[in-house]
Amino acid sequence: MLIATMIGMLSYGIYLDVLSAQLAPQKVFSEVAGGCRILTVDHSERKNGPNKIFDRYTYDFSEVANGDKFQSITEEIRRDRANLDVPTPGSFTVGQNVTCWQPAGVEGVPSLERFYTCGNPECVRVLSPYDQHAYLQTVGFYLTIFGAVAGVIGITATAVLVYFYRACKQEQMQSKIYVEPENKKGYGVFV
Hints:
Elements (H helix, E strand, L loop, with lengths): L1 H21 L2 H4 E3 L4 E12 L5 E11 L5 E3 L3 E4 L18 E2 L2 E3 L5 H4 L16 H47 L2 E2 L9 E2 L1
Antiparallel strand pairs: 1-7, 2-3, 2-6, 3-4, 3-5, 8-9
Helix pairs in contact: 1-4
């Protein structure tokens, strides 16, 4: 079981590590000239148990230079436990001019979507690709580390089990002593 966990964690962790190196945001995204303007802010909340409430924000925005309109990915912010009734504000407000990013053309959008979440077909973003990259890079690192640890524990546990199994079998074989029959006509027995 631990070895299967190791294989899963290691393979996905290494996959994320490789993608984070290949698709670093400074390589595959560039800032949109003139930035973007937030047009609308859509707010909802998600409850995950009695003390976990998340505010979810989706932003409609346009490029300032040419007016193209886009929708962002959903930003999710956990509320403070002391103020569960008070929504946590989103990163942006209506009318705000913000920095936004577009694919640099090095990788196509389908390639970017293996690692980054795009809120629109062109993958123009107002939420920083650097934040998502850092998060996924950290996840990949820890999956790799925990996968290796699970593997070492699993292999060690398997080796210990095999050792004790063989030791018990050998002890059972040695405890069976052959006794010669008294009259030489009968059969000997193992005691």
